[in-house]
Amino acid sequence: MLQTSPRVTSDALYRMAVPAGDYWLYRMESGQVLRITDLEGNQAADTLFFNADDTAERYSVTDTLRGQGNLFLTTASVLRSNEDRPMLTIVADTCGRHDTLGGACATESNTVRYDLEKRHMHACRDSWMLAVAEHPEYGLTRRDITHNINFFMNVPVTEQGDLTFADGISAPGKYVELEAHMNVLVLISNCPQLNNPCNGYHPTPVEVAVW
Ligand SMILES: [Zn+2]
């Protein structure tokens, strides 16, 4: 469901462009709102959420999908934790659909899906691992890299139940906003994938802003 936001970026507490292939790790306070903007269109922002006060609690695909009875995320979707508690709600969305089924790209999955020689290409899992290694203060380890959301990514489900990677439905300037219901650690990998159309074969920056 498309929903524009009343917030203006000139009032934001924080605003930053995340280059393609980089990560962004940030602690949001309960009640704050995060906007992720697809600056150039057809980019995928692979995102993990943790309870900032107890990172054993984190975003859960199964609890979220069961809670809303729908496979796709958009306005009014409540992102639920592995303790089945609401972590964040999508309060605005000008893209209309976000994937949470496809998972993130990894060097291992690149070799299975594409070619053995893709083994050394940069993947989202590498960016998350780098974030974990560079920020020991949060106590995260590789075991905390679990369910994620692919904002702006289009992964339709066929009648037979297959997942397909399709051309993006996003476009320059489309955004999604999430309001936090607890203190939340956000870890975005701005996807560097070059082998499928999730980012138009051309990774580009996204902008993050917090109110
Ligand atoms: Zn990726």
Task: Describe the protein's architecture and organization.
This protein has a 6-stranded antiparallel beta sheet. It has a 4-stranded antiparallel beta sheet with strand order 2-9-4-7, covered by helices on one side. The chain has one domain (9-210). It has helices spanning 61-68, 107-113, 124-134; strands spanning 14-18, 23-28, 33-38, 45-51, 78-80, 86-93, 149-151, 174-180, 184-190, 206-210. β5 and β6 form a beta hairpin. The protein is 12% helix and 27% strand. The protein is built from 3 helices and 10 strands, in the order ββββαββααββββ. It is globular, with a radius of gyration of 16 Å. It has 211 residues and is α+β, with helices and mostly antiparallel strands. Zinc ion binds next to loops.
Sheet with most strands: strand arrangement: 1-10-3-8-6-5
Residues in helix, % = 10-25%
Whole-number mean pLDDT: 92
Structural class: alpha+beta
Radius of gyration: 16 Å
Count of strand segments? 10
Q: How much β-strand is present in the residues?
A: 25-35%
Shape summary = globular
Task: Report the order of strands and helices.
Answer: EEEEHEEHHEEEE
